[in-house]
Every structure is written in C-alpha cells, then in structure tokens.
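Help: read this over?
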Amino acid sequence: MSAPTSPADLYRHSLRLLLDKDMSAWVALWAEDGLMEFPFAPDGWPKRLESREAIAAYMRRYPDHVDLHDFPDVRIHLTDDPETIVVEMRGVGRLVESDHPFEMTYIAVVTVRGGRITSYRDYWNPLAVLEPGIDFTGSGR
C-alpha cells in the first residue's frame, strides 16, 4: 500500500492496522512528540500520553485484551483545518480473557502533520470499563 495522503486516509489505514493487530506499524504512524488524550477517562485511567514512546507502551498489549473484529459505521468529518478530522465510530470484537463481546463507541479529533498523527483526542465511552473483568489497555486494572 502506498503511504496515505490525507488525514482521513491515514486514519482508515490506522484502523486496518488495529484490526490486523500490527501495533508496531500503528505506533509508527505517530509523530515522535505525538499527544494522545482521553478527556472522558475515569479515575485511575490515563488521561494524557505524551510521546510516541508513551503511546506505544499504552497500546503494546491491547491485542492481548481485545480482539477487534470490525469498525462499523466509521464516519469521518473534515474540518476547517485540512490537517484535522473528526471521527465517529464503533469498535466491535471480543474480550480475550473472558470471551465476552466487546463494543465501544468513540468520537476522535485527530490531527496529522507531515504524514504522522500529532494529536488524537479520544472521546471513548467510559461506561464500558465499568463492566467486570475489562482490562484492554494492559494497565493491570
């Protein structure tokens, strides 16, 4: 595949990498000083990751916890800033440890500069982590 040429293309590519469980390639889409924020994260969960290294550490074991099957209903909205998109989507799959179904809704605000993700504000559904046994971040929760 040729390198994605727009923020929307890069984002779609990132989703494919998550489904393929290729975390190294997914992390490689980030700028060294990339910033990932979780404004709705509940207490005890990270609210801000500063650097590609921190993001890599956070996501490293994600596939060990969540087996993603699909991202249905992805809607990408362009903004006045050609480097920033707003994404509405849903992720579905299963929780690896319990084999229970997994479903998460998201709204993300993503900025791409120089072909790399520089900022990602992830407004995921914090109610989903209240389910017993959910630990999909490798945080040990």
